[in-house]
Amino acid sequence: MAATDPDAAHCLVTDAVLGPDFRRATFGGATRGGPCAWVKVVVRPVELRGGRHLQFSYFDGRKTLTKNYPTADAAPPLGELLDLRFAGVHVSTAAEEIDVRTTKKGQVLVGRRQCSPLAARADSEDRSRSERTTFAHNRTKDLPLPEGKADRLLEVMGISTADGRVKPTMRAKFTQINEFLKHLRHGLDDVGLRSPGRPVEILDCGCGSSYLTLAAHHYLNDVLGVPARILGVDVNEEVIRKSVERAGKIGAAGLSFACGRIGAVGARADIVVALHACDTATDDALAQAVRSEARLVLSVPCCHHALNKEVRPEGPAAVLRPILRHGILRERAADLVTDAFRALALRIAGYRAEVVEFVSPEHTARNLMIRAVRGAAVSEPGFVAEYAELKRFWGVTPYIETALGEAFTRLL
């Protein structure tokens, strides 16, 4: 890398990002131009109905803020980004890779690497064949609810316009909905619920604003033709009221809502869903699924406060003191341990459980899904031993054990 003038680097990046061959730019690391709320910013080209835009995704470590600008209007926000002087900037174009590094002393180093002729030719051929499918917003393949197609539900929820255009501010929600519906579709096949000969019963625990509840009902009944009844449960009376209003607008039969605590509503279900249920509400939802003998569980945990208060660098866990002394590292470690306990508990209870990525971290920081299918051996010795050893190592009793109650204790 060669040292250069900051203004020259500024112009180099600007020309590359605003140019026709731009592919992606990532800004990260410490900022030399003053305090900054963003940990990372990603810029990429997208195709919206109005033409080519540049999408700026600002990530603060927990959530992502996305803004779209027509290329002609993108210079000011790009200039603001460059003025922050991130320690590392990487820009990809069809022709080259550009790296800009700013040292602690303010020295600017630039490295440039030309793309190979073969890669450049392949890239050009791909764009000619598919109108450059790198523009993610043009990708409709395999989307349960595709963009560009009028959909009354998405319109009522405020996600798209009447002609099917996704609103820029709702892009992340649109992506989450489609990814969830993909998991739901695959789950139906895994447990043989595509044609059960009766309506599929689904319980949505902690349904919140019910975006995914409404989408699941619409997708199953109206798109896949799978009769389904869904009950959404939440403790917040206001969100339940709004959910009932939305369901009324689209005339959704077999969709109902109840205000109450998870586990307190007496309902059995084939599928139990818990997306972003806060803290131990996720455990209550998993326990409800086990008690209901639900055949499929899809859970995306939210905040993990309970175990974070208990993990300590004591006993066998003392070796992790370098991690646990830092608040943010202790928090993330507790998140992982909590979900590991949950997945193990489901395995012991007779579910094939796995933890997978729900959506990209660009769309939500809470992007892990616990996916479980009923039908595994109950109380398998190997998993029971793992659970006991994990408890011994951390010196804790996870809330999932309390939620599952005496029946689970007997399995141990």
Rg for CA atoms: 24 Å
Helix content: 25-40%
Number of helices: 12
Poorly predicted regions: 118-122, 124-140
Strand order of the largest sheet: 1-8-7-6-2-3-4-5
Q: Topology of this structure?
A:
Elements: E1 2-4, H1 6-18, E2 22-31, E3 40-48, E4 51-59, E5 64-70, H2 75-83, E6 86-93, E7 96-102, E8 108-114, H3 117-130, H4 152-156, H5 171-191, E9 200-205, H6 211-224, E10 228-234, H7 237-250, E11 255-259, E12 271-275, H8 281-292, E13 296-300, H9 321-324, H10 327-348, E14 351-357, E15 368-374, H11 381-394, H12 399-411
Parallel strand pairs: 9-10, 9-12, 10-11, 12-13
Antiparallel strand pairs: 1-8, 2-3, 2-6, 3-4, 4-5, 6-7, 7-8, 13-15, 14-15
Helix pairs in contact: 5-6, 8-12, 10-11, 10-12
Q: What does it look like?
A:
This protein has 412 residues and is of the alpha+beta class. The protein is built from 12 helices and 15 strands. It has helices at 6-18, 75-83, 117-130, 152-156, 171-191, 211-224, 237-250, 281-292, 321-324, 327-348, 381-394, 399-411; strands at residues 2-4, 22-31, 40-48, 51-59, 64-70, 86-93, 96-102, 108-114, 200-205, 228-234, 255-259, 271-275, 296-300, 351-357, 368-374. Strands 1-8-7-6-2-3-4-5 form an 8-stranded antiparallel beta sheet, with helices on one face. Strands 11-10-9-12-13-15-14 form a 7-stranded mixed beta sheet, sandwiched between helices. Helix 8 links the parallel strand 12 (271-275) and strand 13 (296-300). Helix 5 (171-191) packs across helix 6. The longest helix has 22 residues, at 327-348. The N and C termini lie far apart (59 Å).
